[in-house]
Amino acid sequence: TNQNLIDEKKSKLLAVYHSHPDFSDEEKQRTSICPSIKEPITIDDKSDIGYMSILSGTYAVAHFEIFQSEYPDAWDFLCGEWLPQSGYLSRDYFPFEVYMNDPDEHPQHKHIVDIYLPIEPLF
User: How far is CA 77 from CA 9, 46, 86, 100, 111, in A?
Assistant: First the structure.
């Protein structure tokens, strides 16, 4: 059913990571691809889509303009360099990426992405 919920100028595409690649087998890793929508939707039991809300709380938000091959480096920087010296710990919730552009429309085909890492104070 077309509920006209996606605003093409404002909606963003998100990738929500439910499992960590270093701690789960490849076949058990789960990722949800989600468009942001204007308002909650009604889903019937036979639908191929579902509704997901992002929990509120504190997030580190890192902004990158990168090539597709540089995503691991971006995550390594955020989790391996920034986080250990930040005074924060990773919070027990799903990290996610918000895609800010269409890389095919970027002059260098770069991805403009915000990575959201759920965090909590160390002390």
Answer: 30, 41, 12, 19, 16
Beta partners for 33? 15
- Of the chain, the end-to-end C-alpha distance in Å amounts to 48
If you write DSSP's letter for every residue of 39-84 in order, what string do you get?
S-----TT-S-----PPPS-EEEEEEEE-GGGHHHHHHIIIIIIHH
Q: Say if CB 98 and CB 14 are below 8 A apart.
A: yes
Q: Picking from 19-23, 48-52, 89-93, which range would have the lowest pLDDT averaged per residue?
A: 19-23
pTM: 0.83
Calpha distance 75→87 (Å, rounded): 18
Q: What is the pLDDT of residues 31-66, one digit of tens each?
A: 888 888 877 777 777 877 777 888 999 999 999 999
SS3 (DSSP) at 23? coil
- Structural domains in the chain plus CATH codes: 13-121 (3.20.80.10)
> Do you know the residue count of the chain?
123
